[in-house]
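Figure 2 data, in text form.
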Amino acid sequence: ICLCLMCVMTTPLSSTTNPTQHQQIVALITGANKGIGYEIVKRLAASETTVQCILGCRNIELGKEAISKLQKENDIKFDLLKIDLEDDPEEHQKTAKEIESKYGRCDVLINNAAVCFNDPTLYGKVSHTPFEQQAEITIRTNFFGTLSLTRAMIPLLEKSSSPRIINVASSAGRLSIIPSEERRKKFSSEQLTLNELEEYMKEFVRDVQSGTHSHRGWPNTGYGVSKVGIIAMTKVLARQHSNFMVNSVDPGYCSTDQNNNQGYVPAERGALTPFLLATLSTNENQFVTGQHFYEERAISWMYQ
């Protein structure tokens, strides 16, 4: 099956092996010490393909605990790096250089880490955060942090024989959450650039802080807009890097710390599509890029 940019894939993804010409896949997974990120690492470690999993974690101690659990089930080595999406781009560049010095390249980048104010206190972890502050924190972390890390990793991905970027998004980021048709057209334009997208994200934050976001066609969700940005970013990067597989994934409403374990989908189920995209074989002439996935199928971004 040969799949073109932006086409809708009706055949579900299936487990395949040997996605690169290298002896092993080098994969960086952010937010990897728990939830969906941890389950992605777990699947990669147990796959038939040899994968060097690099766990990107904001809290190194929690990362070490995660590796300790993983090593009880897998007789392989895991690597651990401190990655905080709120860090300056210079720190993300240092992370990329460290990976380059150890492995020479990166085959798969799975951007999973994110913050979500399902509760204004993050279920008791922070003080009450009003929406105008939530919006700035969420966009800065989820969108700009992810973009910064991705930019730092692109030179290493370019050294791979089958580079992939997999962005874990959400149904909260479906295009239909944007009330303004004009804004929806801007986000989904095939001429959209990263610079324009960055300006849209900044505009949302400014409009929230000035109390005019609803009047100006924005929804009342910083997390949702951040994920709209992530999906739009996915499509822009797919156009810019035509030899990369760049896709986004809605993992479903998974039970994780992010929603105080209120989700009805197990995190291990939410990890399946990212895992399959990471290990999709190029030997079968499968090339999937610029698409948004849910339960192993490419779907329209406008889904309800």
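Caption note: The chain has nine helices and eight strands.
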